[in-house]
Amino acid sequence: MNKVIEIRDCTAAYGENKVLDHVSLHIDKGEFVVIIGPSGCGKTTLLKMINGLVAPVEGEVKIKGESLADCDLVAMRRSIGYAVQGAKLFPHKRVEENICYVPGLVKKMTAEDRRELAGRMLELVQLPRELASRFPSQLSGGQKQRVGIARAIAAKPDILLMDEPFGAVDEITRKGLQEELLALQQKTGMTVVFITHDIGEAFKLGSRILIMKEGMIWQEGMKEELLRNPRDGFVKKLLDR
Amino acid sequence: MRILQILWDRRDFFLTCLLEHVRISLTAVICAGTLGVLTGIIISRHKKAANVVLGIINVVYTIPSISLLGFLIPFTGIGNKTAVIALTVYGLLPIVRNTYTGLVNVDASILEVAEGLGADKWQMLSGIRLPLALPVIISGFRNMVVMIIAMGGIASFIGAGGLGAAIYRGITTYNMTLTAAGSLLIAMFALFSDWLLAKAEKAAGRRYGIE
pTM of this prediction? Predict the structure, then answer.
C-alpha cells in the first residue's frame, strides 16, 4: 500500500470547458513530484483534485486508499498540507494564529500550545520567533511565503500540495526556500506535489517531473530521462529554458 | 439659549422622553441587527434569493415612514410595539445589504485556502468570512443605528413615547423651543451612539489588524 495518491482516468471541467482530459497518476509515499507546464494546462486543477477542491466529472481519486467521493473530505483535507502562490495568509489573524490554523480546527488549543507550536514552526522555516505576534500585512513577501509553508505543515500532514509557492519571491529568497523545503521533505518523508513554471526549480526539487499540456500529462520522468528522450518539440523547448 | 433654558426647566420630562427613546431604539437595533445579519448570511449563499430579498427590502424602504406606521396600526395597534416593528423594518436595509456585500466580497482565494486546509462550513463562516466582512458589516450597523434613532422621532405620531413626544407637543402647541429642544436631543443621542460605535469599530480593527 505504497500509493498515497491515485488518480484514475479523471476528467475535470468548468462548465463546458474541459480542463483535464482522462488523466491518470500514481504517486508513491515520499515522492517529490513536480508538475510543470504552460498556464492553462490544468496543473492547478490537477492539484486541487487531490484535496477535493475540484471534483472530477469522470474517474476516481483515491488518497491513502480512500476514495475522495465517499470519505470525510474535511478530515481528509486536514491531513493534506496546502500552500499556494502569494501564501494567502488570513489577513485578520496573527502569524501565530495562521500557523496554528489547521491543528486549531481539530481541537481547541491553549495559548501555551499555540505559542509552542508556532515557535517551533517558525524556527523550522527559519524565521525569528518574534514574528509570531505580527499580522501578515507587516511581513515581507518572503516571510509571508515561509509562514504559508509553516501553516501548511503545522499539523504534520503526510501529503503536501504546493501551487507555485515560490512564484512571488525574489531569486535569492527562492533559493533559500527551495533548500529548506528539500531538507524538510527529507527529514519528514512527506509526499510532496509541487507546481512550478520554472524548469530550473523543477529539476532542483523533483524526484519525478510531470510535464502537462492541454489537460493531459504529456510526458513524465526523471530529469535525465526527459533530457535524453524529450517526446517532442514542446517538451524540448520547455526543457531548454 | 432658550433651548437650554427649557431643557433645564423641564428636565424630568425630557429625561423620561430620552430614556423612552433609548429603550425603543435599542430594542429596534437589537431586532434589526440580529435579523439583518442572519438574513445577510443566508442570502450570501444564494445569489438568486439575494436579489429577491434585497429587492423587497428596497421597496419597503421607499414607503414613507409615516405611512408605514399607519399601515401597521390595524395589525399591532398604537404604541411602542408598532414603533419598534416599523423601526426594525427600516433598519434592515443597511444591515442586510452591508452584511451581504461584505460576505460576498471576501477574497475567494483566501476562502479556497481555508477550505483546502480543512475548515468546515461553520469554521469558514465564523473564523474567516464574518471577521473579514466585519468592517463592512459594522459600517452598515452604524448607519442603521443613526437611522433608527433619527426615525424614532416620528414614532410619537402613533402614540409611542420617546423624544418625538416633545417635538410633537411643540408643534401642536406652537412652541418652537420645545420642538427644537427635542430635535437637539435626538441629534445628540444619534451622534453619541455613532461615536461609541466608532470606538468599538477601532477596537475591532486593532484585534483583526485592519487599520
Answer: 0.87
